[in-house]
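Form 7-S
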Amino acid sequence: MKLIFEGHDERYTVEQSLLNLFPGELPVYEPIQPGDESWAVVSCREEAGRLLVTTDLCHLGGKAAAFHTASLSGTDYDREGQRRHAIGACFFQAYQSLTGNTPPWGMLTGVRPDKLTTQALAEGKTPEEARALLERNYYVTPERAALAAETGLAAFEAGGDLGPRDIAVYIGVPFCPTRCAYCSFVSQSVEKSLSLVEPYVDALTAELAAGGSMVRRHGFRVRALYMGGGTPTTLSAAQLDRVLTACEEAFGPALDPGGEITVEAGRPDTITAEKLAVLKDHGATRVSVNPQTMEDHVLRAIGRRHSPGDIEAAMELVAKTGFRHVNMDLIAGLPEDTAEGFRRSLDRCLRFGTDNITVHTLSLKKGSRILTEGLSIPGPQAVGEMLDYAGSVLRRAGYAPYYLYRQKYMSGSFENIGWSLPGGACLYNIYIMSELCSILSFGAGGSTKMVDPVLKSRRIQRVFNPKYPKEYMERPEKKEANQAAFAAFYDRGESGENRA
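Output:
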């Protein structure tokens, strides 16, 4: 779509709106010519403290226009946010007029739509007022606004228990038995990279030792530890023992005795009684078993080499080991699946009695086999039926939504939701999705996110570990620099820099 801006250069705002509302359209910055069937002219001007925005939109021959006004006030930063919101709202209104559609999340393009409700609650608004804000200011449907109010409240309550030196730790194990059709993560099939696993464990335990020293030296407290991937249980029992022992030695008293330790056991074809015993011995409070589907033909379509029966057997082992919390993941919209098949999968998962079920919506990620091979996937209407069924059935079974997030290129522009029974919420998921505290990451592809603990401001800084296992093992200096940046972030806050 050709984009013309008049009186502003808010490219990011308009481009994100375009990608959200017109999947497949890409921004083009060229003059509009007679006969062009896909373009938008977005104009903006200020008059007497008010912002006047117009959008003229053409798509596939259809045309529409919208006009939006907004007051400008506060600091330059505040005014910039008000300007971006007004431009995004006007583009959305033109889209609504052209198509008659209202996407579930309205004009919101970010991955954390409930962050707005958490902020509203922190400002003293009620959940009902926070919900109304999403409907009124961002055109979110009533159903999704109510959902965001629920998960936003869970985040608000979890944040109230965090101290200024409380952090979470992520440990990445980027190996899987095979690569799933929907995956674009930095994970490698063990079949192709078996020789890397043992030296990777060596490098990871060394990084944990150095990071633990920094954590203890600066007085941080680890409230939640999460081992993900990939599939951590791709490691042998002995390798898992080495990594978890390294965690205990690295963080020591910095590990909150009442905190949580979560391990993604993930693929049932990697789960053994011996590995589960190792996790239990090291104090893991939660494991996640991720069938994604209980339909045999869908498992084959996504490249899984296990059967629904293998999932049943893995869940029996998990139950016998006696973990306090267990999560199961499902994905709505997988290749070859149907609304009926998804319902059967969810019903079977509910029979296991786990206190957590996470329902993801398929995200069409670049580099995944779904796109490169053109696999057939359910349409948005079928995905909507899957999610509607999940919401109604899980609520009737006593589950409530406690965290959610969105991704780019999601089927039907929906969301991922974590559901739990009372007392079963995973704090790490809330911390990371609502950006409530810093996440110190270890392992290849690790993304360390530093969240200002003093000012409760919008200041967030990120540093990244080397992306691939081989590069990660060969560049210890990068990992050391990231840990130094983590400590310096807190030191700057304490010294008074960046204070308003």
